[in-house]
Amino acid sequence: MSLDSVSLGRTGLQVSEIAFGTWRFGREDDAGTIEVGRDQADQLLDAYADAGGRFIDTADMYGSGRAEQYIGEWLEDRDREDFVIASKIYWPTREDPNGSGLNRKHLRNNIDEILERLGTDYVDVLYTHRWDDDTPAREFMRTLDGFVRDGKVNYLGTSTFEPNAWKVAKANEIARQEGYEPFTVAQPRFNAVNREVEGNYLEMCLDYDVELVPWSPLAGGFLTGKYTRGEDPPEGTRGATDQQFVDSYLTEENFDALEEVEAVAEDVGASPVQVALAWLVHHDQVTAPIVGARTPEQLEENLAAADIELTREQFDQIADAK
Predict the structure, then answer these.
(1) Which residues face 290 on adjacent strands?
(2) What's the rounded Cα separation, in Å, for the pair 79 and 15?
(3) Residue 174's closest CA among 156, 150, 159, 160?
(4) For the chain, N or C: smaller number of CB within 10 Å?
(5) Over the stretch 171-195, which tens digit does the pLDDT of each residue have?
(6) Which of 232, 225, 165, 166 is nearest to 193 (CA)?
(7) Strand 123-128 to 211-212 pairing
(8) Hey, which bits of 102-169 come out as E strands?
(9) What is the pLDDT at residue 95?
(10) What is the bridge-based pairing of β-strands 55-57 and 19-21?
(11) Which residues pair with 237 in a beta bridge?
């Protein structure tokens, strides 16, 4: 298979229809074991590139900076211009009272560290990883605009856990008034069961020409089909060890949606994983969902979702389940 290119809205960038997320790169578990090390990261990045992938997503805090370092080392043997690299900034990466948030001191320090780890002069998209209510939007939009003017960043995005449409609209109105670079990309959580963005947030994105590149397209693994209504979660899964996951995902309403995903998967001869991803690929407002993987085989299964065709009836069957 080969991933198609799609337009990242008014940025004019061409990106892959499925992005590759690197949040597992360099990440330590509770026992101190790195989940995806350098060699495994290389294999995953190679598999993604071999499938025509060019849209790589990371963050300064993934693996305490190791994710960006792995990507930078991998890029040394490739043409940087072949890839669209997105990173994020907000969370603390050092012990410093000013070492987190969107204050100017933290932003200016961390953008240089991001570029150094990635081994590049610029990132294509820089997301604010979370919103900072302690720093006025006018201040951080001015600082971010400076990154664009200095050539360190090409485009700005915002990543949110609980999306607030009015905050993004406020920031973009400030940008319009002051001539700053606006947010043109948004990275909210969005999947067949997490639908918080539907309504005001999606309407805001349409009105401000903001493109969606959603994270958690498989709802933390719930949409993989590994869970069954009325049965104990399989041993070794998040559902077996994480009560918050149980309370958030193993609900009757979510199982209704999962069963529709599984029904469509049976109809089209695909896995629930692939159909859950295909539902986002087919969504009118989604540019590219972000997938992660531990192995090249997992990644290959995820990327195969781009080849799945859903009818309007099948798309609506899943959409109407929530």
Answers:
(1) 19
(2) 16
(3) 156
(4) N
(5) 999 999 999 999 999 999 999 999 9
(6) 225
(7) unpaired
(8) 123-128, 153-160
(9) 87
(10) parallel
(11) none
Give Cβ neighbours of residue 248 (< 8 Å, ≥ 6 apart).
none
- Supply angle C-alpha 300, 49, 210, rounded to 5: 90
Is 79:85 a contact under the CB 8 Å cutoff? no
Going by C-alpha positions, the residue among 27, 65, 29 that lies closest to residue 241 is 29
Cα 307–chain centre separation = 20
Is 227 marked active-site? Answer: no
Domains contained in the chain, CATH given:
5-223+273-310 (3.20.20.100)
Residue 249: its H or E element = helix 243-249
Q: Which member of 62, 201, 208, 249 is catalytic?
A: 62
Q: How far apart are CA 94 and CA 89, in angstroms?
A: 13
Q: What is the spatial distance between Cα 262 and Cα 124, in angstroms, rounded to a whole number?
A: 36
DSSP code per residue over 183-226: EEEEEEB-SSS--TTTTHHHHHHHHTTPEE--B-TTGGGGGGT-
User: Distance between CA 155 and CA 226 in Å, rounded?
Assistant: 38
Q: Token match 């080969």: residue?
A: 2
For the record, the structure tokens of 19 come out as: 């992005």
Neighbours of 320 (CB within 10 A): 9
Its pTM stands at 0.96
pLDDT in tens, 218-265: 999 999 999 999 999 999 899 999 999 999 999 999 999 999 999 999
Q: How far is Cα 96 from Cα 269, in angstroms, rounded to an integer?
A: 52
Cα gap 67→65, rounded to integer Å: 6
The answer for residues whose C-beta is within 8 angstroms of residue 320's C-beta and 6 or more apart is none
Would you say 194 and 205 are in contact if contact means Cβ atoms under 8 Å apart? Answer: no
Strand duo 290-291 + 183-188: pairing? unpaired
